[in-house]
Every structure is written in C-alpha cells, then in structure tokens.
Specification:
This protein has one domain (5-711): Maltoporin, Chain A (Beta Barrel). The protein has five helices and 39 strands. The strands form seven sheets. It has a 22-stranded antiparallel β-barrel. Strands 3-8-9-6-7 form a five-stranded mixed beta sheet. The protein is globular and about 70 Å long.
C-alpha cells in the first residue's frame, strides 16, 4: 500500500458511509411525515436597498444568508459563510479578506461592510474585521453583488450588510442557550434573553468563543449585544443598541510558508526559517476591542417611510510583531503598533409612495455623514536607548465622507418597473505622520444606476441594469505615494477606481420544487490599482491600467419531495486586464522586467466555483445534508505563468429538532483536502532556473463539531 493510501481509503469510506446513511434514512415520498413549510429566500424582505422590498422584486444581484443557514453550515466566522455565495471569494492571506466579483486590490479593503447599516472602515488600509463578529448574534447577512449606489464610494466592490438579531413576538420573555465543541479545542457558547412588555422590546445576548486553531493559532472572543426599543405604534419605533467585542489571537497568517515549510511543518505555528536554518519563525499577536453604539428611528405606514441612525463606533487594536524577537538582536525587533479609531455616523433617509392608477412612484432621499479619526503609535520595547525613530509609523488620519442620494422607483401597471438612482459623495481626508508629512486630499464622485424590470408574475422578475460607481483609494495608498516620492506616482495623481457595470438578472420562484436566480454581468474598471516599481524599488500603489470582467452567477434550490431538497450554486468569472503594466520576474533568468498585462487574467480569482448540496428529511425533526464545494484553478502571477490547482471539498451534517431542543453533528472538509491561499504575484523563482518561490497561507483541514441548543 502506498503512503497515505490507507488514510485516503478511510476518509473515502467516511464520505460514502455518511452519504449512504442519509440515503437509507430517506423514506419513500408516501411515507414522509408532514413537514413545516420553509420560507424561500426569494420571499425574504431585504433591507440592503433604498426601500425595503422582497428579494424577488429587487433589480439587483442580492444573496441572503439566514440564521438558520448559519446554524446548519456551522460557520465559525462570517468569512466562512460568505465564501459560499456565488461570486464571493475568500482571498485570505493576512486575516479576513473578501472579494466580490474579483474587484479587490492589493493591501486594501474590499466591499463595504455594514453592521446593522453602519459602515465599518478600519485603519489606514481600510481592512475588514469580519472574524470579530459572532455568528450566533447574526439574524441574517445580505450580500449585494451589484454596484451599490446607495452606499457610497467603495460600493462598486459590493456591499455586505450584517444584521444582528432582534426581539421577536409578543412574549414578555423568551431565551436561548446553545453550546458546541469541535476539532482543535473549538468551543462556542451563547445565550440570551428577549421579549416585549407593553410598548417596550428588548434583547440581550452574550457569546464566548475559543479555539486552539488548525495551526495552533489560539483565539478567544467574548461579545455582547444589547437592544432596547420603544414602539410608539406598530409603525414607529425608537431604539438604542450597543454591541462590544473583545478578541485576542495568535496570528500565523502574516507568516507565509514556502514549499519546504509547507511539506514539513504544515500545522505548526512556529517553524524553521529554512532547511539550513533552524531559527524558528514566531507568531504575531493581536488584542482587539470594538464597540458600536447607536440610536435608531424607523417609521413605515402605507405611504410614508423613514429611517434614521446616529452611531458611534470605537475600535482599538494592539499588534505585537513577535516574528523575530528570538532570532534577532536588532532594537527594531518585537515592535508594537497601537491603533485606535473613533467613527461617528449620521444617516437619514425617507420616501413616499404615490399612486396614480396605473403608475406608482416612490422617491427616496437619503443623506449620510461619516467622520473617522484614526491614530497609530509604534513602540520598540527592546530599544532601551531610544534611538529608533517612529516618525514615519506614527499616523494621524481624519476623513469625512458626506453622501447624498436620490432614488426613484416606478411601477407601470402590474408588470413593468424602473429604478433610477443618483448619488454624490464628497471625501475630505488629512493624513499626517511625525516625519513631519501631511497630505490633504479631497474628491467628489457622482454615481448613478438605471434598472428597468419586467415581472412575468408576482414571483418572477427579469431586469437589466447599468450603473457607474467608484472605489476611493485606501489612505495608505496616498501615504506611500508621498513617502516614496516618485514623480511618476504623486498623491495628487491617484484617482478613484471608476466602474461601469452592465447586468441582466432573472429571478423566479416557480414552485416549492424549483427556484432560480441567474445573473450575467459585464464590468469595466478604469484606473485599476496595482503595485508600482521603478527599477528594483517599490513605489507604492498606482492606477496602472483598466480591467474587464465577465461573469455568470447561478442559484437553484427547491424541495421536490417532502423528504428531499437540493441546492445548486455556482459562479463563472473571466477577469482580465484591458491594458496596464507590472513588474515581474522573467523566466528562467529570474531577472526583473516590466511586462505588458493586456489580455492577462487578473490573478488570484478562480475561474469557476460551485456548491452542490442535498438535504434529506427522513422523519419528523430529522435533517441530513451533504455538500460538495469546488474551486477551479486560479493564476498566481500577473502574467499567468503560475497557477494553483482546483480543489473539491465535502461537508456533511445531521441534526434533530424536537420541541424546543436541537442537537447536531457536522463535519467540514471531511476528506481533509489540503487547502492553501497561494501568492506569487510577480512570478519570482528561487533563483535562475529555479522553482517558483510561492508563499502559502494554510487554510483549515478536516473539522468535526457537535452541539446542542435550547429555546425557552
């Protein structure tokens, strides 16, 4: 028997056994117990739009993940859940990185991230911090893949709106408790109370999560959520809410593994520098605290609707760079970055529905202001003489973004609809360091969308949309341009990326057995950012060219039999450079040259992803699921000489619900497929004629979990 064949056979038997078990449990249709009808996702009312409407009616590509979906998939974090949506890609290398339709650029934020409608823009890189949000406190996640005109600069890369749980029903008090335990010492416990008394509603929830991690990346998170509301009537509510998160983690993802380390130290957080150097590469540590505190107002009657929010967001992160404290005597080793950010947000929107017989018209006006105050201070604890300068690393950043949008919804008779939206944004930013260096940047951007639609039936919608939107560069891009001082990449020359998106979509809730959402799109991105080099020197990020992206996204699901349901989703994407240049390593000489990118695929984006799932309901209260997830190959480098091969993984779960209890067992990546995020953008080799010097960031392997929940 070949090495590894025995373990493969056992894992294969496990998959076959679980599939056979679920099939054997499935009775004939005539024997099935009566099951409770489930609300189909196309019937969901979405809030990630200028006015609330059913998902089937929105002329845009929106996906919804409910709390039931999150519970079934056993997602340990939001990133895990999001990558299951067609067109959403986990581009994790250092932390949580999400790209929608391949729009993300290097060392910068991706889509707009909202928590209950409040934008989260952290630090000078505008990174997202998705892992700090407890999945157990989420009611739903809405993902807008179309350009989100209503959400300002950055929404050209999509919008992710995370909506936390709220009090439901009329009971004075109700509650829940849940606990799970899984591989790598992963424990998750949560509990909460909610209810309504007279005109008051309330919710309080707390969650604690801890794990040793696949690579011994220990993490611990405690999070609380509190909501209190006063209902003037069934139509009008005033509420306050607050959530806080405290998370500590040992982070290996800043430390890429090369092939020898990957082969020999795959699951070690500490590993030798190389085969000839036994010095250990050490981990980094982060301590994070965040909180959102908001006052909300909402009103909706038959004609008039209004929503308002005043919010304060605080974020603090202390980052300990431990990588070289045991292998170096430099006074720069073990540096500590303390990052502190305060964000103030005010938003108000409202509209009125006019009815002129065969014509209905709903205009919506909205205004939002966001003010960000960010500071970073660096210290060198081993620099006892005080000779190490922090002038270029100590940062003060102030940014104010003001946006005004006007959205118009027309309905002509029972079938035709038209949405026309406009938005103007003003960004004012000041970036200072102690060198001293100061940048004052301001820009104005105008976005718009036009989307006619046709309803064949109340449950079927065909739409076409054209939109223009922008992505405003991360503050760090401006700082690099000023700091490196190249006359060919000045701060004042950086332009926001401009995107034109042409989209056609079809949504149809045909029956309980068959529901479809199909989207095709073409996107032009002008002034796309990429790394800029002069000779051998990095000169920051620059508008290096234009890109074109074609894509198709498909979602199918249904329950043709009482005991059987299915889920099929997939995305095909062709993203390529229309023009541009980049610095690469020539093969086989391994010398640096400037290369033309025309016609090259944008690196790091799989051409195809899919998810095929079956759900079995053998007896009342029982549910079993089996999923196959495929990621096709993607190119690592700008000029498409290196690629990462396709991978397929399998997930399975079994659950039983009775009365107010639920128990479950789930397994992910049950074949223990070795998965990594691979990076080598410039195609560097180990030397002339050598092998690719590719960096690998290890992703999770086989995971199994058992849990129980109780509602009262």
């Amino acid at each position: 028997m070949k090495a590894g064949q025995g373990s493969w056979t056992k894992k294969g038997m496990l998959v076959a056994g679980m599939a056979t078990w679920t099939m054997c449990l499935a009775p004939h249709q005539g024997e099935a117990e009566q099951v409770t009808e489930e609300l189909h996702v196309l019937e969901e009312v979405v809030v990630t739009a200028t006015s609330k409407s059913k998902l089937v009616d929105t002329p845009a590509s929106i996906a919804v993940i409910t709390d039931a979906d999150l519970e079934q998939m056993g997602a340990k974090n939001v990133t895990e859940a999001l990558e299951r949506i067609p067109g959403v890609y986990n581009t994790t290398a250092s932390g949580s990185s999400i790209s929608i339709r391949g729009t993300r650029s290097s060392m910068a934020g991706g889509p707009v991230i909202l928590i209950d409608g409040v934008a989260q823009n952290y630090g000078n890189y505008r990174r997202e911090e998705l892992d700090i949000i407890p999945v157990s406190q989420i009611e739903r996640i809405e993902v807008l893949r179309s350009a989100g005109v209503a959400y300002g600069p950055g929404a050209s890369r999509g919008v992710i709106n995370i909506i936390t749980k709220k009090s439901l029903g009329e009971e004075a008090i109700s509650g829940h408790l849940s606990s799970s335990y899984g591989s790598w010492g992963t424990g998750n416990i949560s509990g909460g109370l909610s209810g309504r008394r007279a005109q008051w509603d309330y919710l309080a929830d707390i969650n604690h999560y801890t794990t040793d991690g696949y690579e011994d990346e220990e993490a611990s998170r405690t999070a609380g959520l509190v909501k209190l509301g006063y209902n003037f009537s069934e139509k009008t509510r005033l509420g306050i809410r607050g959530n806080w998160v405290n998370m500590d983690s040992d982070n290996a993802y800043d430390l890429a593994k090369y092939q020898w380390q990957l082969d020999n130290y795959r699951r070690d957080i500490h590993f030798p520098v190389s085969a000839t150097d036994n010095s250990l590469v050490w981990h980094n540590t982060k301590e994070q605290e965040s909180g959102i505190y908001a006052l909300d107002f909402s009103h909706k009657d038959n004609r008039f609707f209004a929503d308002g929010t005043l919010a304060y967001t605080h974020y603090n992160e202390t980052y300990y760079d431990n990588r070289d404290i045991y292998t170096s005597s430099s006074t720069a080793r073990g540096d500590i970055d303390d990052r502190d950010q305060d964000t103030y947000t005010a938003a108000l929107s409202g509209g009125y529905s006019f009815d002129f017989g065969q014509l209905s018209f709903t205009p919506t006006l909205g205004l939002n202001v966001e003010d960000i105050d960010f500071q970073q201070r660096k210290t060198y604890p081993y620099d006892t003489a005080g000779t190490r300068s922090t002038a270029s690393s100590d940062i003060d950043l102030d940014q104010t973004t003001t946006g005004l949008f006007w959205d118009n919804d027309f309905l002509f008779g029972e079938h035709w609809g038209l949405k026309i939206g406009n938005r103007v944004d003003r960004v004012d930013m000041t970036f200072e360091t102690l060198e001293p260096s100061q940048l004052d940047i301001d820009d104005t951007m105008w976005s718009w969308t036009v989307a006619p639609s046709y309803h064949f039936t109340p449950d079927a919608n065909l739409y076409v949309s054209i939109s223009r939107n922008y992505w405003f560069p991360s503050p760090q891009y401006y700082y690099w341009a000023a700091d490196y001082g190249s006359p060919n990449n000045r701060p004042e020359d950086l332009k926001p990326e401009e995107s034109f998106t042409y989209e056609i979509g079809y949504k149809h809730r045909l029956s309980k057995a068959f529901n479809i959402a199909l989207t095709g799109y073409y996107m032009e991105t002008k002034d796309k950012f990429g790394g800029y080099y002069e000779d051998r020197s990095y000169m920051g990020q620059k508008n290096i060219g234009d890109a074109e992206t074609y894509g198709i996204e498909l979602e199918l699901d249904g329950r043709p039999l009482d005991w059987l349901g299915y889920r099929i989703s997939g995305a095909w994407i062709d993203a390529e450079w229309a023009e541009g240049t980049a610095r690469i390593y020539e093969h086989p000489s391994n010398t640096r040259i400037e290369a033309d990118l025309d016609g090259c695929q944008v690196n790091g984006i799989p051409e195809f992803t899919s998810r095929i799932g079956l759900d079995f309901y053998p007896w009342e209260g029982w549910k079993a699921s089996l999923d196959a997830i495929t990621f096709s190959k993607y190119y690592l480098d700008y000029t498409n000489r290196l690629s990462y091969p396709s991978r397929t993984t399998f997930d399975a779960s079994v659950s039983y619900s009775w009365d107010r209890y639920k128990v479950w067992v789930l397994a992910k990546n049950i074949l223990d497929e070795e998965m990594e995020r691979a990076l080598n953008t410039d195609g560097e080799l180990t030397g002339p004629g050598g092998s690719p010097l590719t960096s690998y960031y290890v992703l999770d392997g086989f995971y199994i979990e058992a849990g129980i929940s109780f509602k009262f």
